[in-house]
Amino acid sequence: GEDVLITGAGPIGIMAAAVAKHVGARHVVITDINPYRLALAKKMGATRAVNVAHTPLADVMAELGMTEGFDVGLEMSGVPVAFSDMLAKMNHGGKIAMLGIPPDNVSIDWNQVIFKGLTIKGIYGREMFETWYKMASLIQSGLDLSPIITHEFPLAEFA
């Protein structure tokens, strides 16, 4: 049971929360400022869906009894302050995957990366495509996607 932090509750971040919880993460914390997206993330299995405009991440960690930081970080927002907060809240040896595209020339505190021994990896389209096969396995093993289905249309309306 690793502790997972996801910054950005867009469609990919919400699905990441569902998958992390399904495969056995202890705590899955997702951050955003959009109440609708945060509510959907909670329905999909996030332990905590945090509006960072109102609640500091450190408070949530304390409520969950976390004393060492997150083991896995998934940066999906592209927001520099979210990435900076993630770096500060990671555990030693933590791993971060980045999909969010930050603005040009974002500075980060390299001390957080170096002295914590963090691994940061960029994710792009081809690697995401390969996850479709894994996603099929997750669905077959019981991952419930029904909370994210917002509309159903008859096939005749597709044309």
Structural write-up:
This protein has 159 residues and is of the alpha/beta class. It has helices at residues 11-22, 35-43, 57-63, 80-89, 110-116, 125-140; strands at residues 3-7, 27-32, 48-51, 70-75, 90-98, 119-122. Helix content is 38%, strand content 21%. Strands 3-2-1-4-5-6 form a six-stranded parallel sheet, sandwiched between helices. Strand 2 (27-32), helix 2 (35-43) and strand 3 form a beta-alpha-beta unit. Helix 1 runs parallel beside helix 2 (35-43). The longest helix has 16 residues, at 125-140. The mean pLDDT is 92.
List the helices and strands and how they pair.
Layout: E1 3-7, H1 11-22, E2 27-32, H2 35-43, E3 48-51, H3 57-63, E4 70-75, H4 80-89, E5 90-98, H5 110-116, E6 119-122, H6 125-140
Parallel strand pairs: 1-2, 1-4, 2-3, 4-5, 5-6
Helix pairs in contact: 1-2
Which keywords apply here?
single chain, 159 residues, alpha/beta, Rossmann fold, six-stranded parallel β-sheet
CATH class call: Alpha Beta
Give the count of structural domains.
1
Strand content: 15-25%
- Total count of helical runs of at least 4 residues: 6
Task: Indicate the CATH topology.
Answer: Rossmann fold
Q: How many strand units? A: 6
**Which regions have little confidence, pLDDT < 50, spanning 5+ residues?**
none
Termini separation (Å)? 45 Å
Q: Supply Rg.
A: 16 Å
Helix content: 25-40%
Question: Main sheet: which strands, in order across?
Answer: 3-2-1-4-5-6
In short:
By secondary structure, the chain is an alpha/beta fold.
